[in-house]
Amino acid sequence: MAAFASHHVRLALSPFRLDTDRTGYADISRSLRRQSALLMEDVNTIRATNNAIFDDIFWVHLAYGSAENGIERLRTLLGADHHYAAVLAGFEAIDQGRRVLEDGTASERARRTADELIWEGNVQLLEHEQRSLVQPHFDRLSCAFARLFSIGSALSFEVRGVRQEMSYFSSFYLYSFGRGIPHVLRAQAWPRITRLDDRWRWIVTSIVPRFRRFDADLRLVDASLCRIFDEAREHASNPCVLPRSAQIEEAFVPPGLV
Q: Which of 39, 68, 109, 128 could disulfide-link 86, Cβ–Cβ 3.0 to 4.6 Å?
């Protein structure tokens, strides 16, 4: 789910890429003129938020997955760190469920319980991310950007076909003024994606259930992830760097002309 969320962040930030020509030369002055009227500080906050999530939790997944007894490694690494208390609890649940699923003698009922335990652990990781990392960044966003961000906040899983797209699509405002309308009326406040309670309610009520259905179809998951990877590779093939000839010219500037 993090891969799909990051993919949507990249799409949202695409208009802010530096202008480049076919050689890869980045026209920084033109790019800055084009973007000067936009809420660049807010845009950069979204970029920083996405990167902060990766920095905070990727290494934990790596530590867990690269050891034969990953949970013991995490207990050693995270046990004394209050910041990672929810993360460790989430991985404890995931590990407990995983061990049941790997037991060939486990009953069908035990396997269903283990599957639920794994999902609960993942939701704990997601809540840690939203509370500890996303919210402090979102608190810095301007009111104007927060409104625009709320309008545009939606998530799909890159499925193809109108029926499937509608089945897996979820919009923050469509949810808020649909199933979430009782909460909006009680709060007597306009829903905002930058408000933790509003966002978390949308995530656990709308996004997570859709992702669980999506995750059960491995063929669909593989196809969607391949599309994301292909698009990412295509963007990465257009680096914002000086062409080689320009680099050589800059390296040999005659004395007195610097």
A: 128
